[in-house]
Design brief:
InterPro entries: DUF485 (IPR007436), Inner_membrane_assoc (IPR052959). Pfam families: DUF485. The chain crosses the membrane at residues 27-49, 61-85. Keywords: Membrane, Transmembrane, Transmembrane helix. With 104 residues, the protein is mostly helical. It has one domain (3-103). 84% of the residues lie in helices and 0% in strands.
Length: 104
C-alpha cells in the first residue's frame, strides 16, 4: 500500500475526522434549511398573499412592507454565511489541524 493511501486510511479511521464531517454537515444543513425556508416562505407569501406585502410602511408612504422584508432576507443570508465562515475558521480549521498532526 502506498504512503498516500495509508494516510487517507488513517484519516478516515480517526474519530476527529468523523466529528469534523458530522459537525460541518449538520451546520451546513441547518443554515441551508434556514435560508431556503425563509426564501420559500417569502415566495409563498408573494404567490398566495400579495396584499400583505402591499401594506405601506407608514400612512401615505410609497414604500411597502415587502421591501424591508426582502432586504432582511438578503442581509440575513449574508449574516448566516458570515457565521458559517467564522465557525469554519475557528472550530473546523482547529479540528483539521489536529487531525493532520495526528495522522502525519
Amino acid at each position: 500500500m502506498s504512503r498516500q493511501s495509508d494516510i487517507y486510511q488513517r484519516v478516515r479511521q480517526n474519530p476527529k475526522f468523523t466529528e469534523l464531517v458530522t459537525r460541518r454537515g449538520r451546520l451546513g444543513a441547518l443554515l441551508s434549511f434556514i435560508v431556503l425556508g425563509s426564501y420559500y416562505a417569502f415566495v409563498m407569501l408573494v404567490a398566495f398573499a400579495p396584499d400583505v406585502l402591499r401594506i405601506p410602511l407608514h400612512q401615505g408612504g410609497m414604500l411597502t412592507i415587502g421591501v424591508p422584508i426582502g432586504a432582511a432576507l438578503i442581509i440575513g443570508s449574508w449574516l448566516l454565511t458570515g457565521y458559517y465562515v467564522s465557525k469554519a475558521n475557528k472550530d473546523f480549521d482547529r479540528i483539521s489541524h489536529e487531525l493532520v498532526k495526528e495522522v502525519s
